[in-house]
Known about the structure:
Blueprint: H1 6-15, H2 22-27, E1 39-45, E2 67-73, H3 104-137, E3 139-144, E4 147-153, H4 177-192, E5 198-200, H5 203-211, H6 213-219, E6 229-230, H7 238-242, E7 262-267, E8 271-276
Parallel strand pairs: 6-8
Antiparallel strand pairs: 1-2, 3-4, 5-7, 7-8
Amino acid sequence: MDIFSTQVLSKVVERLHTPPSFLLDTFFPNVQTSEKEEIFFDITDSKPRISPFVSPLLPGKVVDGGGYQTKSFKPAYVKDKRRFDANIPYKRVAGEVIGGSLSPNQRYERALATHLKDQLENLTRREEVMAAEILRTGKVVVSGDGYPAQTVDFGRDDELTKALTGSATWENSNVNPVDDLEDWAITIQDKSGVVAKTVVMDPQAWKIFRSNPIVQKYLDIRRGTNNTINIDPHIISEKAKKHAMPVRSVTSPSGFITTPTSTITAQPANSCRIRPLF
Protein backbone atom coordinates (compact mmCIF):
# COMPACT_ATOMS: atom_id res chain seq x y z
CA MET A 1 0.00 0.00 0.00
CA ASP A 2 1.29 3.44 -0.93
CA ILE A 3 1.18 5.48 2.29
CA PHE A 4 1.64 8.67 0.26
CA SER A 5 -1.56 8.16 -1.75
CA THR A 6 -4.30 10.77 -1.44
CA GLN A 7 -6.70 8.26 0.11
CA VAL A 8 -4.28 7.24 2.86
CA LEU A 9 -3.12 10.78 3.59
CA SER A 10 -6.69 12.10 3.83
CA LYS A 11 -7.60 9.39 6.34
CA VAL A 12 -4.53 10.14 8.44
CA VAL A 13 -5.35 13.86 8.49
CA GLU A 14 -8.93 13.11 9.56
CA ARG A 15 -7.68 11.19 12.59
CA LEU A 16 -5.08 13.73 13.68
CA HIS A 17 -5.95 15.99 16.60
CA THR A 18 -6.83 19.50 15.47
CA PRO A 19 -4.50 22.05 17.12
CA PRO A 20 -6.18 24.54 19.46
CA SER A 21 -6.69 28.06 18.11
CA PHE A 22 -7.57 30.64 20.74
CA LEU A 23 -8.31 33.63 18.50
CA LEU A 24 -10.04 31.64 15.77
CA ASP A 25 -12.25 29.73 18.21
CA THR A 26 -13.09 32.86 20.23
CA PHE A 27 -13.68 35.49 17.57
CA PHE A 28 -13.97 33.61 14.26
CA PRO A 29 -16.01 30.48 15.05
CA ASN A 30 -17.91 30.37 11.75
CA VAL A 31 -16.24 28.89 8.67
CA GLN A 32 -17.41 29.38 5.09
CA THR A 33 -15.74 27.54 2.22
CA SER A 34 -15.77 28.23 -1.51
CA GLU A 35 -14.80 26.20 -4.56
CA LYS A 36 -14.22 29.36 -6.61
CA GLU A 37 -10.82 30.93 -7.26
CA GLU A 38 -12.17 34.28 -6.08
CA ILE A 39 -13.98 34.66 -2.78
CA PHE A 40 -16.56 37.30 -1.90
CA PHE A 41 -17.54 38.76 1.46
CA ASP A 42 -20.06 41.38 2.49
CA ILE A 43 -19.45 44.25 4.89
CA THR A 44 -22.68 45.62 6.35
CA ASP A 45 -23.12 49.29 7.15
CA SER A 46 -26.05 49.33 9.52
CA LYS A 47 -26.61 50.35 13.14
CA PRO A 48 -29.33 49.49 15.67
CA ARG A 49 -32.44 51.62 15.26
CA ILE A 50 -35.86 51.95 16.90
CA SER A 51 -39.29 51.67 15.36
CA PRO A 52 -41.00 55.04 14.62
CA PHE A 53 -44.26 56.25 16.14
CA VAL A 54 -47.06 57.35 13.78
CA SER A 55 -50.70 58.27 14.07
CA PRO A 56 -53.20 55.40 13.88
CA LEU A 57 -54.68 57.18 10.84
CA LEU A 58 -51.39 57.35 8.92
CA PRO A 59 -49.57 54.60 7.01
CA GLY A 60 -46.39 53.06 8.36
CA LYS A 61 -43.13 54.89 7.92
CA VAL A 62 -40.57 53.35 5.59
CA VAL A 63 -37.34 52.46 7.39
CA ASP A 64 -34.21 52.05 5.33
CA GLY A 65 -32.92 48.49 5.56
CA GLY A 66 -29.26 49.59 5.57
CA GLY A 67 -26.65 48.85 2.97
CA TYR A 68 -23.58 46.71 2.54
CA GLN A 69 -20.45 46.48 0.43
CA THR A 70 -19.30 43.36 -1.38
CA LYS A 71 -15.56 42.86 -1.71
CA SER A 72 -13.67 40.14 -3.54
CA PHE A 73 -10.26 38.60 -3.04
CA LYS A 74 -8.16 36.00 -4.87
CA PRO A 75 -6.24 34.37 -2.02
CA ALA A 76 -2.76 32.93 -2.18
CA TYR A 77 -2.23 29.20 -1.66
CA VAL A 78 -0.74 27.68 1.47
CA LYS A 79 1.82 25.08 0.36
CA ASP A 80 3.89 23.44 3.08
CA LYS A 81 6.01 20.88 1.24
CA ARG A 82 8.19 18.26 2.97
CA ARG A 83 11.08 16.15 1.73
CA PHE A 84 11.23 12.47 2.70
CA ASP A 85 14.70 10.95 2.82
CA ALA A 86 14.99 7.34 1.67
CA ASN A 87 17.18 6.69 4.76
CA ILE A 88 14.40 7.62 7.22
CA PRO A 89 13.31 3.98 7.81
CA TYR A 90 16.85 3.05 8.85
CA LYS A 91 17.48 5.86 11.33
CA ARG A 92 16.32 5.93 14.94
CA VAL A 93 13.53 8.48 15.44
CA ALA A 94 13.43 10.94 18.32
CA GLY A 95 12.27 9.19 21.50
CA GLU A 96 13.06 5.69 20.24
CA VAL A 97 15.29 3.56 22.47
CA ILE A 98 18.95 3.32 21.57
CA GLY A 99 19.41 0.45 19.17
CA GLY A 100 15.91 0.89 17.80
CA SER A 101 12.59 -0.74 18.64
CA LEU A 102 10.59 0.12 15.50
CA SER A 103 10.60 -1.59 12.14
CA PRO A 104 11.55 0.40 9.02
CA ASN A 105 7.89 0.56 7.97
CA GLN A 106 6.86 1.83 11.41
CA ARG A 107 9.51 4.56 11.28
CA TYR A 108 8.31 5.65 7.85
CA GLU A 109 4.68 5.76 8.99
CA ARG A 110 5.63 7.62 12.15
CA ALA A 111 7.63 10.18 10.15
CA LEU A 112 4.64 10.68 7.85
CA ALA A 113 2.24 11.22 10.76
CA THR A 114 4.71 13.59 12.47
CA HIS A 115 5.10 15.72 9.34
CA LEU A 116 1.33 15.85 8.75
CA LYS A 117 0.72 16.87 12.35
CA ASP A 118 3.37 19.58 12.08
CA GLN A 119 1.80 20.86 8.86
CA LEU A 120 -1.62 21.12 10.52
CA GLU A 121 -0.10 23.03 13.43
CA ASN A 122 1.75 25.38 11.06
CA LEU A 123 -1.48 26.03 9.15
CA THR A 124 -3.33 26.81 12.38
CA ARG A 125 -0.58 29.23 13.42
CA ARG A 126 -0.82 30.95 10.05
CA GLU A 127 -4.56 31.40 10.54
CA GLU A 128 -4.01 32.60 14.12
CA VAL A 129 -1.51 35.21 12.91
CA MET A 130 -4.02 36.41 10.30
CA ALA A 131 -6.75 36.56 12.96
CA ALA A 132 -4.49 38.58 15.26
CA GLU A 133 -3.65 41.01 12.46
CA ILE A 134 -7.33 41.50 11.61
CA LEU A 135 -8.25 42.06 15.26
CA ARG A 136 -5.35 44.44 15.81
CA THR A 137 -5.62 46.55 12.64
CA GLY A 138 -8.95 45.73 10.98
CA LYS A 139 -7.15 44.42 7.90
CA VAL A 140 -4.77 41.65 6.86
CA VAL A 141 -1.86 41.71 4.40
CA VAL A 142 -1.31 38.54 2.34
CA SER A 143 2.03 38.20 0.55
CA GLY A 144 4.41 35.43 -0.47
CA ASP A 145 6.77 34.13 -3.13
CA GLY A 146 5.39 35.01 -6.55
CA TYR A 147 2.28 36.51 -4.98
CA PRO A 148 2.17 40.34 -4.83
CA ALA A 149 1.10 41.77 -1.49
CA GLN A 150 -2.66 42.13 -1.16
CA THR A 151 -4.43 43.98 1.65
CA VAL A 152 -7.89 42.82 2.71
CA ASP A 153 -9.48 45.79 4.47
CA PHE A 154 -12.62 45.12 6.54
CA GLY A 155 -13.38 48.84 6.80
CA ARG A 156 -13.17 49.16 10.57
CA ASP A 157 -13.54 52.71 11.89
CA ASP A 158 -10.16 54.25 12.71
CA GLU A 159 -11.42 55.28 16.16
CA LEU A 160 -11.66 51.62 17.12
CA THR A 161 -7.89 51.20 16.97
CA LYS A 162 -6.10 52.65 19.98
CA ALA A 163 -2.43 53.15 20.79
CA LEU A 164 -1.36 54.37 24.23
CA THR A 165 1.83 56.43 24.16
CA GLY A 166 3.79 58.75 26.43
CA SER A 167 2.08 59.63 29.71
CA ALA A 168 -1.14 57.86 28.65
CA THR A 169 0.32 54.35 29.04
CA TRP A 170 -0.82 52.11 31.88
CA GLU A 171 2.62 52.22 33.53
CA ASN A 172 1.70 55.76 34.66
CA SER A 173 0.12 55.54 38.12
CA ASN A 174 -2.13 58.52 37.29
CA VAL A 175 -3.75 56.67 34.37
CA ASN A 176 -6.93 54.71 35.08
CA PRO A 177 -6.95 51.55 32.89
CA VAL A 178 -10.53 50.76 33.93
CA ASP A 179 -11.70 54.14 32.63
CA ASP A 180 -9.86 53.48 29.38
CA LEU A 181 -11.63 50.15 28.96
CA GLU A 182 -15.02 51.68 29.72
CA ASP A 183 -14.43 54.60 27.31
CA TRP A 184 -13.36 52.21 24.57
CA ALA A 185 -16.41 50.04 25.20
CA ILE A 186 -18.64 53.11 24.84
CA THR A 187 -16.93 53.98 21.55
CA ILE A 188 -17.56 50.45 20.31
CA GLN A 189 -21.24 50.69 21.18
CA ASP A 190 -21.56 54.12 19.56
CA LYS A 191 -19.88 52.95 16.36
CA SER A 192 -21.42 49.51 15.97
CA GLY A 193 -24.12 48.98 18.59
CA VAL A 194 -22.19 45.95 19.87
CA VAL A 195 -21.42 45.56 23.57
CA ALA A 196 -17.76 44.79 24.33
CA LYS A 197 -17.45 41.89 26.79
CA THR A 198 -13.91 40.55 26.44
CA VAL A 199 -10.44 41.98 26.90
CA VAL A 200 -7.43 39.84 26.02
CA MET A 201 -3.91 40.63 27.21
CA ASP A 202 -0.50 39.10 26.77
CA PRO A 203 1.51 38.41 29.98
CA GLN A 204 3.34 41.76 29.81
CA ALA A 205 0.15 43.81 29.34
CA TRP A 206 -1.54 41.84 32.14
CA LYS A 207 1.41 42.46 34.47
CA ILE A 208 1.24 46.21 33.83
CA PHE A 209 -2.55 46.23 34.19
CA ARG A 210 -2.69 44.41 37.52
CA SER A 211 0.21 46.52 38.89
CA ASN A 212 -1.68 49.77 38.36
CA PRO A 213 -2.70 51.20 41.77
CA ILE A 214 -6.25 51.90 40.58
CA VAL A 215 -6.70 48.31 39.44
CA GLN A 216 -5.20 47.16 42.73
CA LYS A 217 -8.18 48.73 44.50
CA TYR A 218 -10.48 46.41 42.57
CA LEU A 219 -8.32 43.50 43.64
CA ASP A 220 -8.68 44.46 47.30
CA ILE A 221 -11.45 42.16 48.56
CA ARG A 222 -11.45 43.64 52.08
CA ARG A 223 -13.48 46.72 51.20
CA GLY A 224 -16.84 44.91 51.28
CA THR A 225 -18.13 46.18 47.92
CA ASN A 226 -19.84 44.42 45.03
CA ASN A 227 -16.91 45.20 42.72
CA THR A 228 -14.97 41.96 42.32
CA ILE A 229 -12.22 40.72 40.03
CA ASN A 230 -11.31 37.07 39.75
CA ILE A 231 -7.66 36.64 38.72
CA ASP A 232 -7.44 32.87 39.05
CA PRO A 233 -5.34 31.37 36.23
CA HIS A 234 -7.34 29.63 33.53
CA ILE A 235 -5.51 27.48 30.98
CA ILE A 236 -7.63 26.52 27.99
CA SER A 237 -5.26 23.67 27.11
CA GLU A 238 -1.60 22.82 27.40
CA LYS A 239 -1.16 23.21 23.64
CA ALA A 240 -2.87 26.58 23.68
CA LYS A 241 -0.43 27.57 26.42
CA LYS A 242 2.49 26.20 24.45
CA HIS A 243 1.60 27.94 21.20
CA ALA A 244 0.34 31.25 22.59
CA MET A 245 1.31 34.12 20.27
CA PRO A 246 3.09 37.26 21.50
CA VAL A 247 0.60 39.73 20.02
CA ARG A 248 0.95 43.20 21.51
CA SER A 249 -2.47 44.78 21.11
CA VAL A 250 -5.51 43.12 19.63
CA THR A 251 -8.88 44.65 18.87
CA SER A 252 -11.93 42.73 17.79
CA PRO A 253 -13.70 43.72 14.55
CA SER A 254 -16.23 45.60 16.65
CA GLY A 255 -14.34 45.89 19.91
CA PHE A 256 -11.12 46.25 21.76
CA ILE A 257 -8.91 43.55 23.10
CA THR A 258 -5.34 43.86 24.24
CA THR A 259 -3.84 40.49 23.22
CA PRO A 260 -4.09 36.76 23.83
CA THR A 261 -3.47 35.37 27.25
CA SER A 262 -5.78 37.21 29.66
CA THR A 263 -9.45 38.03 29.41
CA ILE A 264 -11.72 40.49 31.16
CA THR A 265 -15.41 39.68 30.92
CA ALA A 266 -17.97 42.24 32.03
CA GLN A 267 -20.47 40.87 34.54
CA PRO A 268 -23.63 42.31 36.16
CA ALA A 269 -23.52 44.12 39.51
CA ASN A 270 -20.34 46.07 38.68
CA SER A 271 -18.16 42.98 38.72
CA CYS A 272 -15.83 41.50 36.15
CA ARG A 273 -13.71 38.40 35.71
CA ILE A 274 -10.10 38.50 34.63
CA ARG A 275 -8.74 35.14 33.56
CA PRO A 276 -5.00 34.99 32.85
CA LEU A 277 -4.49 32.35 30.20
CA PHE A 278 -0.84 31.56 30.89
